Amino acid sequence: MNLIIDAGNTLVKMAVFKDCDIVSHRKIPLKDFANNVKSVFSEFRNIQNAIISTVGSLSQEEIEMVSVFCRVHLLSHVTKTPFKNSYATPQTLGVDRVALATAAFYHNPNNNTLVIDAGTCVTYDVINDYGEYLGGAISPGISMRYRAMHEQTAKLPLLEIKSILDFIGNSTENCMHSGVINGICNEIDGVISQYQSRFADLTVILTGGDAQFLSERLKNTIFAHSNFLLLGLNHLLEYNKR
């Protein structure tokens, strides 16, 4: 069994894999990490390997705590990948994007794949039909767009995500909702069209915290997968056992 740990700025996702199947999955606050690690290993005593993907939110002590229970691989730019990495600055490539590219490589082998991760930021990552990672783009996510309008103006309120009935807003709040939701949907549809014009038979996969909300509002046909990053991390762990 493998333990997969994806640590963000405030939340940690932990999943236990048996071969390629998730048998346990939990999302916890960062502050509860230590207690939950002990709980996972108490429940699943056959875990032998773990991979940790962190943006720097986990302390060295917390990482070492996991290594008490099993072998640990800390994902970084020196981690071996199954695809050819043509990114110009691999040392600056986010570990989450490495995991998503890996998931795309195994999910859709020998085909052009665009992965869109709609979280704090929206990231676009493309793997071509030669198994080569080319890069992509990064733009602000939904919550970041709302927060930027509030924090960088004097009077605009801080709003929560909300569906819009019409792209023409009839109040300041509705105009803000239209700008964020209509704007990000048109951005994603536009980016997909750009990639489709260059890559034949392109498969598009949408993942991340806002994936379900956005998938219902996009014009393009996409495959929404909530655990795509965790699958990629498990593939990376297996690949680096060799």
UniProtKB/TrEMBL annotation:
Residues binding ATP: 6-13, 120
Keyword ATP-binding assigned: yes
Keywords for the protein's UniProt record, in alphabetical order: ATP-binding, Coenzyme A biosynthesis, Cytoplasm, Kinase, Metal-binding, Nucleotide-binding, Potassium, Transferase
Organism of origin: Arenibacter antarcticus
Matches recorded under InterPro entries: ATPase_NBD, Type_III_PanK
Active site: 96 (proton acceptor)
Cofactor remark from the record: A monovalent cation. Ammonium or potassium.
Matches recorded under NCBIfam families: baf (TIGR00671), PRK13320.1-5 (NF009853)
Name of the protein in question: Type III pantothenate kinase
Catalytic reactions of this protein: (R)-pantothenate + ATP = (R)-4'-phosphopantothenate + ADP + H(+)
SUPFAM superfamilies reported for this sequence: Actin-like ATPase domain
